[in-house]
Write a sequence for this structure.
């Protein structure tokens, strides 16, 4: 029991440290941009601080909710989230040509982020209930794919193809863990590739993202600009970095660096040493979460925690991979570090779910 509590305490302290570091880097990366945009250099920092405090509140609130209560209402929770996605499309705030946000008391809420809670809960409950039919396509996999398809359709209308591809990859991994047939997983991959190809053809700017990923210098002042500036940040950082507050890329060279490309500013200011420390914290976080997963006896809670680990881990890999040019540009935040209220709150909810799942199963874990 005490060992389990120590492990959870270490996980929380790691997340807390990443969040505080994120607040520091958000101020560093956004101060010039915020001053020019709003006249207040601490604008994004202050908003993220509010989100951070809300996230802590949601974390403790989630700890007080029974997992079984949530599991039985997973379809209702997902239904509410899908309604919010529709609402965002109809009356949501438009930013950069996309309608993904709802405004509440002056703060933006991104319903697609909350799928990390609602769709996770629904999918894990479904896989748990249908575990005896998971190798049957029509009775096991197809109904889940239909619900996933409805969610994906609403996200694409946003438009946000990258988030759809993220969920497709996550669902593939969860079905693999649930022991689905390999040929059914292959069908999922093929359908995903065909759908992605069709959507890229319909929206030409997505093809520009792919070409800029393959050769950013072909359009260095256009679609490849952000990736080039990000790579300049990495190169400028070297081994020890240019120093805290000394980033040059934050002077509006790297657009909105406090969001998806904050890791580039970290690399510039703290260099290889700082990047290694941050990566080490994330590695410790995921290895600790994964270790807890292996020790959970209840299959539903074990799959739920595994789903949380895959969501958070995939975001970290994709975000850092995008910033250094390993993957095409995709708007995924760096968990607990990047600016983004919905993302931060959702990840604290997921952390609360993880702690609650292990707490309810602690008699098995502690052996």
């Amino acid at each position: 029991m005490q060992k389990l509590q120590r492990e959870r305490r270490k996980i929380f302290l790691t997340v807390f440290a990443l969040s505080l570091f994120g607040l520091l880097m958000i101020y560093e990366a956004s101060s010039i941009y915020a001053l020019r945009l709003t006249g207040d250099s601490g604008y994004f920092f202050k908003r993220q601080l509010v989100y951070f405090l809300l996230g802590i509140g949601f974390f403790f609130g989630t700890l007080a909710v029974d997992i079984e209560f949530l599991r039985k209402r997973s379809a209702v929770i997902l239904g509410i989230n899908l309604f919010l996605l529709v609402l965002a499309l109809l009356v949501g705030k438009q930013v950069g040509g996309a309608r993904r946000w709802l405004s509440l008391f002056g703060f933006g809420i991104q319903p697609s982020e909350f799928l990390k809670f609602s769709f996770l809960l629904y999918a894990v409950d479904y896989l748990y209930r249908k575990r005896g039919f998971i190798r049957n396509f029509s009775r096991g996999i197809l109904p889940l794919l239909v619900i996933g398809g409805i969610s994906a359709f609403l996200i694409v209308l946003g438009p946000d193809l990258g988030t759809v591809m993220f969920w497709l990859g996550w669902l593939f991994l969860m079905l693999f863990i649930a022991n689905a047939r390999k040929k059914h997983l292959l069908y999922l991959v093929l359908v995903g590739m065909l759908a992605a190809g069709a959507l890229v053809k319909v929206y030409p700017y997505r093809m520009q993202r792919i070409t800029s990923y393959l050769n950013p210098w072909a359009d260095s002042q256009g679609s490849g600009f952000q990736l080039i500036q990000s790579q300049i940040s990495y190169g400028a950082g070297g081994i020890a970095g240019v120093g805290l507050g000394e980033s040059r890329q934050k002077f509006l060279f790297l657009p909105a660096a406090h969001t998806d490309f904050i890791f580039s500013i970290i690399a510039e200011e703290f260099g290889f040493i700082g990047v290694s420390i941050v990566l080490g914290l994330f590695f410790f976080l995921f290895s600790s979460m994964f270790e807890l997963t292996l020790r959970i006896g209840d299959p539903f809670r074990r799959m739920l925690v595994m789903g949380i680990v895959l969501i958070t881990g995939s975001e970290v890999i994709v975000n850092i991979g995008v910033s250094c040019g390993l993957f095409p540009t995709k708007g995924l935040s760096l968990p607990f570090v990047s600016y983004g209220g919905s993302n931060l709150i959702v990840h604290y909810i997921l952390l609360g779910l993880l702690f609650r799942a292990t707490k309810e199963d602690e008699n098995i874990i502690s052996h």
Notes: The first strand starts at residue 93 and ends at 95.
